[in-house]
Specification:
Elements lengths: L28 H9 L26 H17 L1 H11 L25 E8 L2 E13 L12 H4 L10 E9 L6 E8 L2 E9 L2 E13 L7 E11 L3 E13 L4 H5 L3 E8 L4 E9 L3 E9 L2 E7 L23 H9 L3 E3 L12 E7 L5 E5 L4 E6 L14 E7 L4 E7 L2 E6 L3 E5 L5 E6 L9 E3 L3 E5 L4 E6 L5 E6 L10 E2 L3 E5 L4 E6 L5 E7 L6 E5 L2 E5 L3 E5 L5 E5 L6 E5 L2 E5 L4 E5 L5 E5 L5 E5 L2 E6 L2 E5 L5 E6 L7 E5 L2 E6 L4 E5 L2
Antiparallel strand pairs: 1-2, 1-12, 2-3, 3-4, 4-5, 5-6, 6-7, 7-8, 8-9, 9-10, 10-11, 11-12, 13-44, 14-15, 15-16, 16-17, 18-19, 19-20, 20-21, 22-23, 23-24, 24-25, 26-27, 27-28, 28-29, 30-31, 31-32, 32-33, 34-35, 35-36, 36-37, 38-39, 39-40, 40-41, 42-43, 43-44
Length: 662
């Protein structure tokens, strides 16, 4: 398996990249409360094979003072989330003209799984068996255009009826040890479920007209046929006539029969293809198990227990060692290294309307949420040739789907996370295979953060902070830190967790126990950024100020006009404004250097800082001295991140990347 990204969506050394402050979301407080008002008393069960959602504590009903307090914080939260609302509006335009009732309800669509459902499987090919996962995505209209590999999109999308409101179901089968996943695309129609085609990496087949996989009035004993042309890609592309004959029967297992499951047998023939499949379909679950042959290759998948989480996690990205007292240490591997243009992410847009900036993994892979269809897209370094893009560009290797609209994307070692508008947090393995999903008490707008290799912390709009086991998703502790919402990213120095609620109150929690250490530092104005380093919480709120991370006592403050970002490395803090950059001593607030620089992005690395400004990447040492610059040669960039032992300068709109090569 290919290795994957660094933890928590944070920069090297555990410092949050600047872009995360501006990452748009999709949820307003009014939306969250209205959804909670109509929410059933018990949460829905987790998908098969996933751990049950832990129950939130503190279920006491809201009082009038609490409701008044909520009204008091609505305006700040709305301001914080205004970019998210605009993003959501863009996403909703693809649903224009559709209504919740236009989904065709019939015997075939009663078998469809829910959006984001997943099942652990054992996948067998020949004599080799290995664990894997099947996940399901419900896509509406043009959402589905970004849901399949690019060469197959024109062949998959010939929907019956209005293409803007057609309902699609994408089933993705992923083996944990392979990047070559199987994708199937289906449409719900009044005539039944139609199969448009399927792919296995650079192989696949599409049907025109599509195969009627399950008729609208399907029942045990029914038989049916389909025929048309099939476009095959098997060592080349060829169009051949196809015929399909299918039948439905009752499963031999009495429990499955009682649940209303059907055993669908299908034979598809072309000049070069013999595809035979037997699939168990169950109401609300889709295909539960399947066996078949592709010409002489036999394969099957069966339900399985969840596979152990084996993807490694690391607390930080290893970068070149450097010390404040050894300038020569900076020169080793850095000063002579040019800024290299790389084609990892291509030179043209690789995704449709990305939601927020990409998060780069420690292999150089990038994860970014698609605003179009709720997928998390992962792009890997370019290949000589590939099925998704032409030579010399980035290859979109998988589309993880957590269900609902993605509100944040983060990383944890070789894995990555996604939170959604459905109040869920999902951990994915490096190849996009789902590891676990937990239900949250409310929506999380900011990416979860890593605390070492084995823990993940997440904050939600109801003011809760939860610590989870990174391997299983099981809850370690759960604290109601505030009655106000927490929408900004958490910060940590490994011992303490810092958070900011909607009133810009600084909240400090013990990372080991979840004990609330301090919640009485109220600034009365929005806080732009927060970082914890070596026992000090440093934030920007019209000034830069340092606080004891265990007690909340103010230690120092530094006047700086409109500071809007802060990153830290050890005992040094870099604070940026729209027109200045200042490096401070984290313990005392003393100024190390103050320069008239207009920073676009800043990043802390081991022993110093990188600043993106004026079309170049600048390296600043902890002593406040500029060590080196790398020119971007006029190429656009707005984000800095660390991965693969390199530092990446990224243009988030086109997913184009350049690296500083140590």
């Amino acid at each position: 398996m290919a290795p994957d990204p660094p933890p928590g969506g944070y920069s090297a050394g555990g410092v949050r990249p600047t872009w995360q402050q501006e990452q748009p979301g999709v949820v307003t407080p009014e939306w969250a409360r209205e959804r909670a008002r109509h929410r059933p008393a018990e949460p829905p069960p987790a998908p098969p094979g996933l751990p049950p959602a832990p129950q939130p504590a503190d279920p006491a009903p809201s009082t009038e003072p609490e409701r008044a307090s909520r009204r008091r914080y609505e305006l700040p939260v709305v301001l914080v989330l205004v970019l998210g609302i605009l993003a959501a509006m863009a996403a909703l335009t693809i649903r224009a003209g559709s209504t919740p009732d236009d989904f065709p309800h019939n015997a075939a669509t009663a078998l469809w799984p829910t959006d984001g459902a997943a099942r652990d499987i054992t996948f067998t090919t020949g004599s080799i068996s290995e664990p894997g996962v099947i996940d399901h995505a419900r896509l509406r209209g043009f959402e589905s255009l970004a849901g399949v590999p690019a060469p197959w999109a024109p062949m998959f999308h010939r929907p019956d009826g209005d293409p803007a409101t057609a309902h699609f179901w994408r089933q993705t089968s992923t083996r944990f040890n392979e990047l070559d996943r199987r994708i199937q695309m289906r449409q719900a129609t009044t005539g039944g479920t139609m199969l448009y085609g399927q792919t296995w990496g650079d192989r696949g087949i599409s049907y025109g007209p599509p195969i009627r996989e399950v008729p609208h009035d399907v029942s045990a004993g029914a038989t049916w046929e389909s025929h048309g042309d099939a476009a095959l890609r098997i060592g080349g592309r060829q169009v051949e006539p196809y015929t399909n004959t299918s039948s439905a029967g009752t499963p031999s297992d009495a429990a499955e029969a009682e649940r209303g499951c059907l055993l669908i047998t299908s034979e598809t023939r072309t000049e070069r293809l013999q595809l035979d499949e037997e699939s168990l379909w169950c109401p609300g679950e889709g295909i539960v198990r399947q066996s078949g042959t592709w010409n002489s290759l036999r394969y099957e998948f069966t339900p399985a227990d969840p596979a152990p989480v084996s993807d490694q996690a690391r607390a930080s990205v290893p970068l070149p060692d450097a010390t404040a007292g050894d300038p020569a240490g900076w020169e080793t591997g850095w000063i002579d290294a040019p800024m290299e243009t790389d084609t990892t992410f291509g030179t043209e847009a690789a995704v449709l309307i990305p939601l927020g900036a990409p998060v780069v993994g420690d292999t150089g892979y990038a994860h970014v949420a698609s605003q179009v269809n709720g997928d998390v897209l992962t792009i890997m370094p370019s290949l000589e040739d590939g099925p998704d893009y032409s030579a010399g560009t980035g290859l979109l290797i998988h589309r993880a789907h957590a269900g609902g609209q993605v509100t944040s994307v983060g990383t944890h070692g070789q894995m990555f996370t996604a939170t959604t508008s459905e109040r869920t947090l999902t951990m994915f393995g490096g190849n996009g295979a789902r590891r676990w999903t937990v239900e949250l008490s409310e929506v999380a707008m900011a990416a979860p953060i890593s605390l070492g290799p084995d823990r993940v912390a997440v904050a939600t709009l109801d003011g809760r902070v939860r610590m989870l086991d990174a391997a299983t998703g099981q809850e370690i502790w759960n604290t109601r830190a505030s009655r106000q919402g927490i929408a900004q990213p958490l910060a940590t120095d490994g011992t303490t967790i810092g958070a900011l609620d909607a009133d810009s109150t600084l909240l400090l929690l013990d990372a080991a126990t979840g004990e609330l250490l301090s919640d009485d530092t109220d600034f009365g104005q929005p806080v732009a950024d927060l970082v914890l380093t070596e026992g000090v919480a440093v934030l920007t709120a019209g000034q830069v100020a340092g606080f004891d991370a265990r007690t909340g006592d103010r230690l120092w403050e530094s006047v700086l006009s409109v500071p809007d970002r802060v990153v830290a490395d050890g005992d040094r803090v870099l604070a940026g404004t729209p027109n200045r950059m200042r490096i401070l001593d984290a313990q005392t607030g003393a100024t190390i250097t103050d320069r008239p620089i207009v920073p676009t992005a800043v990043l802390a690395i081991d022993g110093g800082f990188l600043v993106l400004a004026d079309g170049e990447v600048q390296l600043w040492g902890p002593d406040g001295q500029q060590r080196h610059t790398w020119s971007l040669d006029g190429l656009p960039a707005d984000t800095l991140d660390a991965g693969d032992g390199r530092v990446w300068a990224l243009d988030s709109s086109t997913m184009t990347g350049w690296w500083v090569q140590p």
